[in-house]
Amino acid sequence: MTATPFHVYDTTLRDGAQQEGMNLSVADKLAIAPLLDELGVGFIEGGWPGAVPKDTEFFRRAAKELSLRNAVLAAFGATRKAGTRAWDDPQVRALLDSEAPVVTLVAKSDVRHVERALRTTPDEGLAMISDTVAFLVGEGRRVVVDAEHFFDGYRFDPAYSRAAAEAAFTAGAEVVVLCDTNGGMLPHWVTDVVTEVRGALGVPHGRDAAAGDHLLGVHAHNDSGCAVGNTLAAVASGAWHVQGTVNGYGERTGNVDLVTVVANLELKHGLRTLAGEGLAEATRIAHAVAEITNISPYARQPYVGASAFAHKAGLHASAIKVDPDLYQHIDPTAVGNDMRMLVSDMAGRASIELKGRELGYDLSGQGELLTRVMTRVKDAEAQGYTFDAADASFELLLREELTGTRQTYFRVESWRTIVETTAGTAGHDAASRDADAVAEATVKLHAGGERVVATGEGNGPVNALDQALRSALTRVYPQMEKFELIDFKVRILDAQQGTDATTRVLVETTDGQHSWSTVGVGPNVIEAAWESLIDAYVYGLVHAGVEPR
Amino acid sequence: MTATPFHVYDTTLRDGAQQEGMNLSVADKLAIAPLLDELGVGFIEGGWPGAVPKDTEFFRRAAKELSLRNAVLAAFGATRKAGTRAWDDPQVRALLDSEAPVVTLVAKSDVRHVERALRTTPDEGLAMISDTVAFLVGEGRRVVVDAEHFFDGYRFDPAYSRAAAEAAFTAGAEVVVLCDTNGGMLPHWVTDVVTEVRGALGVPHGRDAAAGDHLLGVHAHNDSGCAVGNTLAAVASGAWHVQGTVNGYGERTGNVDLVTVVANLELKHGLRTLAGEGLAEATRIAHAVAEITNISPYARQPYVGASAFAHKAGLHASAIKVDPDLYQHIDPTAVGNDMRMLVSDMAGRASIELKGRELGYDLSGQGELLTRVMTRVKDAEAQGYTFDAADASFELLLREELTGTRQTYFRVESWRTIVETTAGTAGHDAASRDADAVAEATVKLHAGGERVVATGEGNGPVNALDQALRSALTRVYPQMEKFELIDFKVRILDAQQGTDATTRVLVETTDGQHSWSTVGVGPNVIEAAWESLIDAYVYGLVHAGVEPR
Questions:
Q1: Predicted structure pTM score
Q2: Is A496–B322 a contact, with Cβ atoms under 8 angstroms apart?
Q3: How many CA atoms are closer than 13 Å to the CA of B344, on its beta-carbon side?
Q4: FRET partner for A531 with CA separation of 20 to 30 A, picked from A100, A416, B106, B249?
Q5: Residue of B453, B499, B525 to mutate for A, most A C-beta atoms under 10 A
Q6: Chain A: residue whose CA lies nearest to B30
Q7: 3-class DSSP state of B249
Q8: ipTM over 0.85
C-alpha cells in the first residue's frame, strides 16, 4: 500500500489573478509557473481554457515551453450547462483540448446557489456534476472537484452539500475540495464540517489514505482573517489537499497564503508537503512572484515578509544576541529569510552591535564606539530621523564613527530649485487644476579638483535636483550612471504645525543589483529630499569601492 | 452578580508602534486615542512612561487634553529589577506618576527567559512579579500582567509558567494575559494551553465570570499567520481579555488586528465586546488611524480593507445584484465598509447621495446629477485624489455640479517658488547636513478688479506659497486672516517610479472654529500642495458667505 502524498495545489495563476488590480499576461504566467515548480508544489492551476482566451494560449504554450519537475498542470473549468450533455458543451471540451492532465471543475454545492444562480433544480445540479466528472474521467483525466460555497451550503442544507460531494466521488473524482468561497468561516466550524463530511462519505483521514483513496481538500479565503487557521483546521481533520496562492493573492481579502500554510505544516507539524527543498527558497520565490505581478510585497507577511524577522525593541536585543531561538518562532533560514535588527531610539548598544554585524562590521568589545553611535542615533531620531527604514544612512553614520571621517566625494557650494507655472497656463481656472508647473534646479559643487555648475529639469523639484546632481557628478564618477531612484516617501512630522512642520524623506536607490535606503530630515521637503539624495549617492559610491577624487 | 464585561485592550500606541518604519509623535498618539475610544475599546495602552520620554509626555498631556468616553488609559511597564524593592525602582515609580488608572506589567513567564535574559533565579523571577503587582495594587491601580512568552514557556516548563500566573493573581492582578510573544502558536495549541491553565488556576470561563473574578487574556502576534485564529481559540476557551492593535500594526508580522477579532466575535458569535456602536464606523476609524501613522492601508485587510467587499464583474454579477448575501460573509455596512462592484454604479450613487445629505444638500431624485458627480469622483480617484479624507474638496466639486459653476474669488496668472541654500552654508560638509535652505514664492493673480503681485518667504516652498497667497488676497478678502493651516500630509502614489511618482497632498485648515480638509494631486509635491491650498481658501470663503469681488 502506497500512502497518498499530500497535495499542495497552487491557484495563483487562476484564483490569485482575480485580485483587484492584477492583470497577468501569458508571459507572466509562463514566468511564474517555474517558480511554483521550484517551490515544490504538486499542482499548478493555470487558468480557465476556453472561457479566457489568454488562458487557452497559456496551456498551448505551457505544453511546449514549460518543463516542470515537481508539478502537474491543472485546467480549471465549470460543470456542463444545465440541460445539455457534457460532450456537447464547448466549455467542457476546451478543458480536454488544453491537454492538462488534471481538470478541476467548479461545482455548486450550496442548494441556494443551484436554485438562484444556476436557476435549475437540485437534481439537475447533481447530474451536472456526475456527467461532467464521468465524461472527463472517461477521457483519461484526473478530476478534482471544487465544491463551491461548500461550508455555507452545508451549514444551510447539509444533505444537499453532502450529495454534491458524493456525486463527484461516485463519478470518479479523485478529490473533492470544500471551498469557503465567501471566506467567512472560523476554524472550529471548519473542523466540525470536515469531520462530519469525512465521516458521512467514508473518506479516510489523509494520513491514512492509500493510493487511489478518495481525498477531501480545502480552499480558503481570508475574509475573517482566518484563512490559515481554517486551512490548518481542515488538514488536522483529514483534508489532504490544500489550495492557495503565493503571497495570498486573490479576490477581496485574498486566498490563503500557500507558503504560510506549507511552512506551518512542514516546520511545526513535521508533515512533508512539498517536493524537494523549495521551502528554504520560499522568500526569494515569493518576492520573485511579486516582481512579476508588480504588486509590492507586504512587509508584514508571515515567514517571507521583509519585516517577518525584524526586531526593534531595545529590551530584547541583548538577549537576542545570546540566544536568537528565544525570540523567533522558527529559524528564518528555513524559509530563506533573515533576522534583521532595526536601529531605533529604543535601541541599546546590543542592537547596534548586532546591526553592525549584519552589515559586516565587527563591533564586539568596542564599548565606547557603540555608545557614541547610540548617542548619535538617539539624537538624530529625536530630530525626526528614522534609521530602521534607512540602513544605508545608518551605515554611513557608523562608518563615520569607525573611521573618524566621512568619505568626501564632493563638496556642495550651493543649490537652488525653482518650481513655476508658465504665465497663462495657471490663469483660466481659480483652482488651477490644469496648471502645468515645471521644475528646474541648479547645483554648484566641487569634485575631481574642479568647480562644477550643473542644471537639471524635472517634473518636480526633487527630480530636478536629482538630475542636476547626476549631471554635475557623472563625469567624475561614471559609476553613478547605474544608480536609479526607485522609491521616494515623504512623511510630515509634528503635523499639527501646518506648513511649518518638519519633513522626513526616505529614498530607495538601486544600482541594478542591490538597493539601499537613506533618510533626510529638514524643515522643508526639498531640503530633506536633498539630504537623502546625497546619502544615497555617497553610499552607492562607497559600496562600489570608488575613491574620492 | 454582575457579569464581567469583555475586555478589548488596544495596544496600537505601544506594541503597535514597534512596527518597522512607524514613529509616532506625542501629537500622533493624542490624535489616535480618541479614534480608539470612538471605536469603543475598553483600554488604551498609551506607552511606557519613564522608559520612553515621549510616552511620559503623552500621559502628562493625555490627563489634561483627552476626554475619553469608553476607554481607560493603561501605562505599560516592567516588573521591578532583580534584587531591588518595587517602591525603590524608578521605572515602577514612573508608572504610578503617569496617573494611568491601569498599569500593565510585562512579566517573564518562560523560565528560560528568566535565567538567560533576566539572569536571575526562577524564585526571584516570581518575587519580582508578586512584589511589583502588590505594590501597584496597594497604590490603588488596576493591574494587568502580560505574561511574556507564556505559550512557549508553558510548552517547555508548564509548572513555572503556571507559577508566574499564580504569583500575579495572588498579589492582586485583575488579568493575566497569556502572550504569544514570538507569534509562533497554532490555534489548537492555544486551545490546549488556555484550557489547561484556566483549569489549573481555577479561573472561570469569561462568560461565567462575575465582577472581581480573575480573568485570563490573550496577546497574539501573526508570525504563523494565525493571530486571529489563535485569539478566537483563546476566547472560546474562556480568555475574556483580548489585546491587539488597529490595522494589526506591530513588530515583525504585527500584532493581531483588533478590528478583525472584534468583528468576528460580534458578528459571528454575537458576543458584545465594544462599548457603543463603534463597529459600524470601523472602516473609517481604521483608515483615519492609517492617515496618522502614514502607513498605507492594506487593501486586502479583512473587514475594513478597500478590497474586502470588492467583487470583480463576471460569472455571478447578476446574482450578486439580486442576492448579495449569497456572496458576502457579512453585510459590509456592519463595519462601515461598502460592497463594490465594477458592473454596478448603484452603490456609488447611493453613497454620494448620503454624503450630500451629510453636508446639507438634498440630492434625492437627482439621478443625473448623482451620475455626473460619481463619474467625476471616479475619474479623480483614478488620478490619485481621495475624497474620504477631503470633504471640503468634495463639497466644492459637488457645488460646482449643482450650480454649474465654481465661485471665482481670484484668477491666478502664475506662481513660482524658489528654494536655495546660501552659497557657503552648504559648502563645508558634503552631506550638507547643516545647510540652511530658504524658500521664497511669488504669486501673480487678479482679484477685486486688480492685478496683484505678492511675495512670501517661508521655511519651505509650500509655506512660502501660502504666505504669498495670503499677502496677495487679504486686502480684498480680509476674512482670510483668520484662516490657518493646521495639518499638511504628503503621500507618494505609484511609489515604484522614484522621484517621478504622483504626489497627493492633504491640507487641513481652520478658521478658529471649524476645520476642513482639501486634497491636491500632481506629478510634483509643490503643485499638489498648491492645488490643496487653493481649495482650502476657496472653501473657507464660500463658507464664510463671502461674495467674489
A1: 0.76
A2: no
A3: 20
A4: B249
A5: B499
A6: A496
A7: coil
A8: no
